[in-house]
Description:
Mean pLDDT: 75
Structural class: mainly alpha
Radius of gyration: 34 Å
Order of helices and strands: HHHHHHHHHH
Shape: elongated
Low-confidence stretches: 27-38
Number of helices: 10
Largest sheet: none
Helix content: 55-70%
Amino acid sequence: MEQHRTRPPSQARPRRTPPLPPQQGRAAESATVYRAAARSRRPVPPFVLALRRSPLFRKVRQARQLPLYRTLRRMPNPRLTGLGSGLFCGAAMFLLACLLRVLFGGAASLVAYGFLFLPVSALTALWVRPVDLVTAPVGVPIAFAAGILPISGGEGGLGGQFMGLVTALALHAGWLYGGTLVAGLIVTVRKIRLMGQRRRAKAAPRPVSKANKARRRVPAS
């Protein structure tokens, strides 16, 4: 009878691999290059530099230390969309016009309406969210024209109401331009601050994790 030859199980021999050279210097060098690249900043526009050097900007920075500024900072700070900011301004001006018609009536209500339009425009520009900053100066004059209807002084049918609205807008266009200018200035300042925050966030060095360090290590051939 034939007997099958059996071999004893061969013992697994450990593989001898040459030790890898230390990669600390290379990892540190790559991390240094990464941080140096992250610190590169874009040149600041000349308009922003001129605005920072102006005395008005210095006064604004000094006003932040006043108690009134801190009190205003504690007030509610909602974030409205573009449509929401327009609806807020229009509804606020319409309610104020109705209230002024009941209290004063006549030409005095139009003057008070124009004066109250300035703080409402400022609140609209402050409360609109950063994505919809452009909509604030556009929606503010529309809200002024829509809210002035109760005190425009038009009589008769639709034609008389329209003529009264046009007359009121023509006589009190200064308040309209003033409120739009206030909203535009506030939106411009907010946009400049937002650009500065984004630039500082990009220029800030990011923490290098252990996984990124391990990926940067290249085995020596």
